[in-house]
Protein 1
Amino acid sequence: MWETTMSQSVIPGPAKPAPRAPRTTAGLGLAALTALVVGSMIGSGIFALPSQMAGSAAPGPLIIGWAVTGVGMLMLAFVFQTLATRKPDVDGGVYGYARAGFGNYIGFTSAFGYWMSAWVGNVAYLVLLFSTLGYFFPAFEGGATVAAIIGASVVLWIVHALTLRGVQTAALVNVVVTVAKVVPILVFIAIAAVGFKAGLFTADFWGKTTQIDGAPLGDTMSQVKSMMLVTVWVFIGIEGASVYSQRAARRADVGRATVLGFVGVLALLLLVNLLSYGLMAQAELAGVPDPSMAGVLENEVGSWGAAFISIGLVVSLLGALIAWVLLCVEILRLPALENVMPKALAKENRHGAPATALWLTNLCVQAMLLWTLANASTYTNLIYLATSLILLPYLWSAAYQVLLAVRGETYGDGRGRTRDILVGAIALGYAVWLVYAGGWQYVLMAAVFYLVGTALYVWARRESKLTVFTRAELVVVAVVAATSVLAVALLATGHLAVL
C-alpha cells in the first residue's frame, strides 16, 4: 500500500489507487447498476414535487429552473461517466475520485460525508414511510409515534437481514422494487396527460399575480432560485453506479447506467411536475399536503387515486431504503481496503456482504430513529441535513475531472480534453452553487460530523502504521476544527438548530 509522504504544498497530493480486491461473486450488470441509480434517486422527492414546486414558482420560472438544473446535473452525470472510463483503476465513485485527486484525508471526508448522508437519508425514508402508512393506519400518523418507530425498526432490520445475504441478492430485489415503484408514477403521468388543462397551466405563466399563503412569488429570478433549492434532494443518487464500480461486470456499464438512470428520472420528474400545473390552480396545488401527488390524483379521479399513490410511495421508499443501505456499506468497504477507514469495515461474510459496515450503519439508523421519537425531528430537516453532507463529495468529483483535463492526464492524443474541461467546469460550478444553496447552518453541522469522524481516519492510519496527516492535510483538519468550534458555539447559544 502506498504511503502518503509529508508535503510542503498547500493542496493535499493525490493518492495512488490500491490494487483492486478480487471479486468473490459475479459482477453487477447494466440493468442492476441502472436500477441502483434509479432506485436511489426515486425515493420520496418525486411524490412531494407538485406542491413543493407550486409553492416556489410559476410555470415560466419553473421551466427555466429545470433547464438550469437539468444541465447542471447532466454535466455531473457526464463527469461520473467520463471518470469511470478514463480512470478504470479508481473504485468507489465519489470517494475514489476525491482520494485520487486530493489525497487520503479528502478522500476520507468524501466517503464519511457520503456515508453519513446515506444513513441519515434512510432515517428520513423510514419516517416518511410510516407517515404514509398513517393514511391507512392512524397509529402511524406523522411517522414519529411509538408505533411508527417500532414499525420502522422492524423494517430496518428486515432490510439488514436481506443485505447480509449478499449484495447480489439485495441488488436483484432492488431491480424488482424499482420497476414496481415506477408503475404508479407512470399511471399518474398518463391520467394527468389526459386531464391536462392548458388554460390552468398558462393562467399566470410568470407568477405575477399568484400568491401563496398571502405572499407573492417574487420576480422571475427569485422564483427560479427558490424552486432550484427543492431539486437538490430529488437528484441525490445520481452517483449510485459509480460507487459500485468495483462490483460492475463491465466497467463501461458504470457510465452508461449513470446517464441512462439520470435521463429516465429527469423525464419522470419533468412530466410529474409540469402536468400537475394543468390539473389544479397553482395556489390550490401549493396547499396540497404531502405526498402531494396523492392529493392531486385524488382531486382528479377520487379517493382511490390517493390510496394508489400512497401504496406506490410505500413501495418507492422501501426500494430507496434497499438501494441506500447498499450504498452505505459499499462506501465504507472500499476506504477500509485502502487504509482510509478501519480494516474491520472491509470484512465480508460468506455471502460477500460487508457485515461490520452494515451493522455500524444500521445501528446508527436505529439510534437516530429513537432520537427522532424523542425530539420529533421532521422529515424535511432530516433530508436537508442528508443533502448538505453529500454536496462536498459531488464537488470533489467534478474538481477531479477538471484537474485531470487541465493536467492532460489520460489525454495522450489530446482528444476530448477541451470538452471535458468545459463539462467539468460547469459541473464544478453547479456543485459549488449547491453547497451555497444547502444553507450555511447545514454546512456548519457537516463540519462537526467530519471532525468527529476524523477519529476513524486516525484509527485507520495508525493501525496500518502509515503517516496520519501530511502538512497540507493538517491545514484542512484545522479548518474543519475551527468551523466545528463555531458550530458548537452557535448551537450552545441557540443561534443554530438543524434537528
Protein 2
Amino acid sequence: MFDFENHDLEFKQEYTSDIRKEVIAFANAEGGTILIGIRKDGSVLGVVDPDSVMLQIVNSLKDSIAPDIMPFVTVKTKKTEGKFIIEVHVSTGINRPYYLKEKGLKPSGVYIRKGSSSQPMTDEGIREMIVQSSGKSYEALRSLTQELTFLTLSKELEKKSVDFSSSKMKTLKLIGDDGLYTNLAYLVSDQCEVTIKVALFQGADKAVFRDRKEFFGSILKQLEEVYEFIDLVNKTKATFSGLDRMDKRDYPQEAVREALLNCIVHRDYSFSGSNIINIYDDRIEFVSLGGLVPGLEMKSIFLGVSQSRNPNLAALFYRMRLIESYGTGINKIQRAYHNEERHPVFETAKGVFRVTLPNRNEFSELVILESSDEFEGILEKQKNRILEIALKQGQVTRKDVEELLKAGSTKAFRLLRQLCEEGKLQSVGNGKLSHYVLK
C-alpha cells in the first residue's frame, strides 16, 4: 500500500499513452516518479507482462517527446506485495521545456507539475522557461512554432547568391544545436506574426488619419513593403536655378532605409507589440521596441559604438548586403541631412527608441515664406483665394488648396485650420472624405 499522490508521485492503474504528459510535467519541474500498476488510492494492482509494458513506455517516450528526454528517465520493474509494478523515475531536464512533438511548443504540448496534477503551461510560461534554461538571447532560443516555411528568405538569398542548404541554416543560426528552428528562423519565416504598423496623418499631429497599414510575414518581406510604402509618399520637389532643374525628395532615401533597418535589426522581439512608423506632413517617426541595449548610452551611439541586441539577425543582414557594417546606420542618417536646416532627432526611453526624420521640403518652404517682409499680406491673399474657391464650388479640400497655391500638405492644412479658427470655414467629415465649407 502506497501513500497518496503528491507533487513528485503519480499513480497509474495501467499503462496508457497519457503517461507522456506526466513525464513531461516532471521533467519540466522538479522531477518525480510514476508508478504503473497502482490504483489512485495507493493499493497495488500489479502489471501483467511488465517487460512488454516497459518496452512500450520507452518507445513511446523516445518517439513522442522533444528534446530527447531519455537521459533523464529510468524505467524499471519492482515487486511489491507479490505483484510486479513498473517505476518510471524522471529527473529535471536540462533542455526544458520538453513537449509533445505532435503538439509543438504550445500549451497543448507542454506540461508542468502543479501539486498532484500535470497542467498545460501558458505561452508566457513557456517563453520564460526557455529563457531560464538556455540563458540565450531571444533570437537564439527555440521557436515556439516549428512548422515554418522560408519562401521569402530563399528568394532573397538566391538574389544575393547565398547558399540555403541545411548546413548553411545551422551556420546562419536558423537551426540550433538541438536541431530545432530558432526564433531567428521564425522572424525570417513566412509564418512570422511580428508586425510593423504604419500610419499616415494629415498635418503635423494625429488629428486626422489619411491611411494606415499593418505589414505581416517575414521581416524581410516587411522591410521591402514598408520601404515601398514610404517611397510612395516621399514626394519630390523641383526647384530651378536658371535653366537647371533640381529635384529634392522630402526625405533622403538613404536616411529612410537606415532608419527602417535600425527599427528591424535592433528591436527587442521578446516584446509582443509592433514597431510603429508615423508619417506626418513635416516628419517621419520610426519607433522601435526595446530601447538601447543595457550598458549603452545615447552618447555611445554617436561615438560609433554598436552592440546589437540581435547579432545573428545583424549577421544575416550583413551576408545579404542589407547592412554594410555594424554601427554605421546613425552616422549615415546624419550625413544624409548634413546640409539641411533641420537634422534628425534620436530619442530613447525605457523600452523605446525613436528616430525622427524632418521633411526637408516642407521646412524650407516655411522658412522662406515666414522670413519674407510681405508674409502677412501674402498669407491674407492666399486665404482669400481659398475662400473664393469654397464659395464657387460650395466646398474646398486640402487637395484643392495644394493645387491652387502650389503648396505642400502642411501649408495647405495650416491655412485651412487658421480659416476654421477665424470662423470663416467649417470642417466636415473625417480622413479622406474631409472637406471645408463656408460658415
Protein 3
Amino acid sequence: MANPWLALDLGTDPAERIRQVGRAHESFLAGGRPAQIRSVVADSWQRSADALDGADSTPPIELNDGELEEYRAAHPLARVLPIFRDLLGGLAEDGDHLMAVCDAYGRLLWVEGTASVLRGAEQMNFVPGARWDEAHAGTNAPGTALAVDHSLQIFATEHYSRPVQRWTCAAAPIHDPGTGRLLGAIDVTGGDHLANPHSLALVRATALAAEAYLGSHLPPPASAGRVQALGRNEATLTFGGRRMRLGRRHSELLVLLLVHPEGRTGEEIAFDLYGDDVSPVTVRAELSRLRRMLGPELLESRPYRLRAELDADFRTVTRLLERGRVAEALDEYAGPLLPGSDAPGVRRLRSLVEGQLRAAVLSGRDRDLLRTWLHSPWGADDLEMWEAYARQLPPASPARPLVIRRIRQLATEFGLRPSVSGAKPANLATSVQRARN
C-alpha cells in the first residue's frame, strides 16, 4: 500500500475488504495471527486485546453533565472549535457523518451531527464524556491516532470492538504549538465512503489549521521564572530571558528556597542541606555565590528568600494531584526530584512528591497509568505496582504471563512472597516501599 495510513488502496472493493478484514479479526480473536491487514491495525488490535476483556465491550463515560461542561470550557481545544465547525461542519450537517473532538486521553469533548446519526452513535457510547482511547474502546481512529501520534483512517471491520464495525472514521492528532504536547484529536465518523484520501487530508488540514491558530495566539512569555528539577541532578532556571543550569549544591539551595517562600535562616538551610554536620558559615558562603549568580533582584538575605515569583515542575505535579488530575500529573512527572541529592530537606521533598503521585496512581487502578508508571525508570522495580497492574489485566491477556514473571522475579529479589492472585500479605506494601527506599 502506497500510504499505510489510508484504509483502502485505489480500486479495492470495500465490501470484499470488509469481509477479508472481518475474517482476520475473528481469527485474531481466536488466537491466530492477523494476516492481510495493515501493520498499524495489527499493532492496535494487540494493544486492544491486552487492555480489554473482549471485543464487545462499551467505552465508559468518565465526564458527566456539569463536570464535562467545566472541563471542556477550560480545554485549549475549545478555542479552535469554530475552526472545526467551519472546516468539518458541512460533513456533520449532511446527515451521514459525525464530527468529534477528544482530549489527549481519548475523552470525547464534542460530538456533532444530525439527530439521527447521533442516535446511532449513542448505541456504542460515542457521546461526549466517553473515553475512546484504545485501552477503553479498542482500535478506532481518534484513539489510535492518539496512540501512534499520526493521522489515519480506521475502516469498518478494522475496529477492534464489534459494535463499532459498521462505522468508518478518519482522525488526526492536535498538538500544543508552544510545547509540542498532545492536546487531543479531531475525527470524522460515518459510512464506508469515508475510506478515501480526501477525508484523511481534510482532518489533517483541520488539525494543522487548529495548531496554526493556537500558535498565533500564544500568550506572551510570563515574567515569572521556572525551575525544572525533576529527573535531573542539576536544575535549570529560566528567568529574565536567561536559561541557566545550576550546579548540584545550588540546585538544592534553589529547591529548598522554593518550598519556603517566607524565607530561611542560614542555620535552617544548613540543617536541610547537611543535617548537623556543617557550620552555617559554609552554607552562607554557598548562598552568597548563588546570589551573585542569580542577582539581587532574585535572591535576598536576612532571611534568605526568593524575591521573584518562580514556578517549578514539581509544584505543577502536586497542583495537578490536588485537583485530582492524576494522568496529567504523571505526564508532567519527569522523574524523582534531584535524584542524586542526599540533602535531608531535598530527600524529604522528593519522597513527598513521588509518594503522593505513586499513591494516586495506585489507588486509581487505571491500567494505563499503572503501565506508564511501570515502564518508567523509577517504577520498573515497584513490586506493589506490578501486582496492582496484574490485578487489572484480563485473565486471558497475552501480557499477563510476562507480568507475573516480573512479579516473581522482584519478590525473590526482595525476599518477599508474591501475590499474583490479588490476596497479598498484610505487610507487603510496607515491605516493598522499604525495599525501594
Protein 4
Amino acid sequence: MTIRRGIPPLLVVLALAGCTAEEPSGIQLGTARRAPVSEVVEAPATIGARAAATLRAPATGTLTKLHVRDGDTVAKGDVLAKISSPEARGRLSQARQAERLASRPSAPRPAFAAPTLRGFDGRAFAGLDRKVRSDFAQARSAARKVGDATARKRLIAAIDLAERRHRAQRAALGAITKDLTRSVNGVLSQLTGQLSTGLGSLTSSMASLQAASRSQAKAAVKTAESVVKGLTIKAPFDGVVTLGRSSGGGGATDALGGLLGRLPAGLPTQAPPDGGGSGGGPAVATGVPVAAGDAIVTVTDVSELTISADVDETDVLLVERGTAARIELDAVPGATYTAKVTGVGVTPMAGTTGGVSYPVRLTLGPGRFDDGRKAPAPKPGMSAVARLTVRESPGALAVPASAVVTSGRDSVVWAVRGGAAERRVVRLGAQGDALVEVLTGLREGERVVVKGADAVRQGQKLP
C-alpha cells in the first residue's frame, strides 16, 4: 500500500533546511523550526450508493407490463412492473383449500363408561332360594303324614338338617361370589382408567397435530399471498432504475426473492439461477417469460453517496471515525472531493501485496476543480483514491524527513553541538512527506543534518 504524506510549501522546506551549496562533503544542515505538518494515508476506494435493491420475480410467469426504463427516477411505492403467474395463483388456491380443511372442527370425543360385572349378587339366586324353600316345605308336610312316630321324627330331623346345610352352603356361596364380584370389578375399573388415560393422551396428541396443521396451513397461505402480491413489483425507496441487475454500487438484494426459500414443504418452487438479471438472465421486456429469481429491476438510491476504502493494516490503526479525507476520481481528473470517515471495519481482507487491509467507510461531500469550478457528482461503482489526514499538527516543531535516520527501533537525528555531530534519539509525531514532527529530543532553533545523515558519525566535525 502506498502512503503519501502531506507536502508543505517548498518555501517552508527550504527555510527549515537552510542548506548551503558550498559544503563539499555532501552533508547539508538545517534548523528545527515551527511549521504545519500533516500525515496522510492513501488508499484505493470505490464510490457506492446509499442503498440498492435488486427486485426479482417471485415465481415463474410472464412479464406483462414494464412501467419504467433505464435511468428513470422513481419514488417509493411506484409500480415498476407486473408479472402474470398462473402457477403462483394456483399455489395460493391450493393453500387456501388446505387451510379450510385444516380448520374444520374435529369430532367430539365419545364418552367411555367403565364396565361392571353383574349377576353374582343375592338377587341372582332369589328365585332358586324360593324354589328350594318350597321343596323343603313340601317334604316336611309329607313327613308329617307318616304314621310311624319314630320314622316321622327321624324324617323331619333329616329334612331340617338338610335345610340347615343348604342355608350354610348358600351363605358361603354368597360370600364367595361377592368377593369375586368385588375383585373383578376392581380389575375392570383399573383397566378402564388406564384405557381412559391412553385415550386422553391420544386425543391430546391428535389435537396438537390438528393445531400444527392449521398453523402450517395459515403460514402457507400467507407465503403464497406474499408471492402473489410480489407479482406487482414496486420501488422499495426513492431512486434510479436499472433494468435487470445492477453491476456495481453496492446495496442489498430485495427480500422478495427470499420468499421462495420460505415456502412450506409440498409447494413446488424453482430455485433462482446463479448470476441472474442482466448479467446472464433473459432480457427484461414486456411479454418475456421469467423464472423465479430472475432480476427484473434494480433501484439505486443515489441521494447520498458513500466511499468504501481499503486501508492497509500498517495504517488502519491511525484511522478513526470523523477523520477528514480528500477524494480523487479517475473519471474526474483535476477535481478533489471532501469526505469524512463514518466507520472502520474489523474484518480483514487479503491485500494485493500479500498483507491484509481493512474496509473504511466514508461519506462523500462536494467536489471542486483546481480552478474552483464545481465538480460533477460521481456515479456508484467509480474507482477513486482516498487520502485520509490521520494526524495534523499546525504548529509542530518540524525537521525535514531526510533528517531522520532509523536505528533499530529508534528514530535518530544528528544535531550540531560545538561544531560536532551529536546523536539524538527523538520521538516523532505527525509524519509528512517532506516534514516530520519532533515531539521530544530537539529544541527549536537547533541545527541538524538534513542531507547525508546516514553517513554521519558521533563527534564528526560539521561546518
